[in-house]
């Protein structure tokens, strides 16, 4: 039976309500529905090698910890792939509520100075290429934060997909299809994506 055990980090709480997995920590909370036929996700107490113990020893010291357990009675290729995907999702949730995910962005302009601000749940860009009407992009996720410091923008939060989608939407907001990018480089661009902290 394929089975993956993901020990729950300290200062992280996990609740599983039928198909919904909710993870919370110092950096916020994330919920996700994990469902696939014949795949179960549960919380169990498991034995792991104790901190500081020699893993190569014949009988290393172990300790009991709570873990998210992902398992299935099936072992076909699609199910195995889904188990791996679920493992990545849970690892990313652990990392997100503990350390967070961060995108760094930068504002570039040669022709018209842009003003970038946050209004409620939107990022607002004014004076892009001299336009009178402001451009707006939604901030995804309840705990996603957008900070603007002159030409530098930081998008951060516990939900990897919400943070990434917010950054992508901001970048897309200033993409111009009918101008020569060698001349018109004005825009907001992602300069640094998160390191692989989760999966």
Describe the structure.
The protein is of the alpha+beta class. The protein folds into 2 domains: 3-98, Ribosomal protein L6 (Outer Surface Protein A, domain 3, Alpha-Beta Complex); 101-192, Outer Surface Protein A, domain 3. The protein is 18% helix and 42% strand. It is built from 2 helices and 13 strands; from the N terminus they run ββββββαββββββαβ. The strands form 4 sheets. It has a 4-stranded antiparallel sheet. Strands 1-6-5 form a 3-stranded antiparallel sheet. A 3-stranded antiparallel sheet has the order 2-3-4. The radius of gyration is 22 Å and the shape is elongated. The mean pLDDT is 90.
Give the CA-CA distance, first to last residue.
23 Å
State the CATH class of the largest domain.
Alpha Beta
Individual helix count: 2
- Unreliable spans: none
Q: What is the H level of CATH, i.e. the homologous superfamily of the largest domain?
A: Ribosomal protein L6
Taking all residues together, what is the mean pLDDT? 90
Structural class: alpha+beta
Give a short account of the largest sheet.
4 strands, antiparallel
Helicity range of the residues? 10-25%
């Amino acid at each position: 039976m394929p089975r993956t055990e993901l020990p729950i980090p300290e200062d992280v709480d996990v609740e599983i309500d039928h198909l919904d997995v909710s993870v919370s920590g110092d950096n916020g909370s994330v919920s996700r529905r994990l469902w696939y036929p014949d795949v179960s996700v549960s919380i169990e107490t498991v034995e792991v090698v104790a901190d500081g113990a020699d893993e190569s020893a014949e009988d290393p010291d172990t300790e009991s910890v709570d873990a998210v357990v992902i398992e299935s009675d099936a072992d076909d290729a699609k199910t195995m792939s889904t188990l791996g995907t679920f493992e990545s999702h849970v690892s990313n949730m652990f990392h997100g509520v503990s350390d967070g995910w961060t995108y760094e962005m930068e504002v570039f302009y040669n022709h018209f100075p842009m003003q970038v601000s946050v209004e409620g749940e939107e990022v607002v860009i004014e004076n892009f290429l001299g336009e009178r009407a402001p451009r707006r992009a939604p901030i995804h996720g309840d705990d996603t934060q957008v900070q603007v410091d002159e030409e530098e923008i930081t998008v951060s939060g516990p939900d990897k997909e919400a943070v990434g989608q917010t950054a992508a939407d901001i970048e897309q907001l200033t993409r111009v299809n009918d101008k020569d990018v060698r001349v018109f480089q004005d825009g907001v661009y992602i300069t640094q994506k998160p390191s692989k902290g989760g999966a």
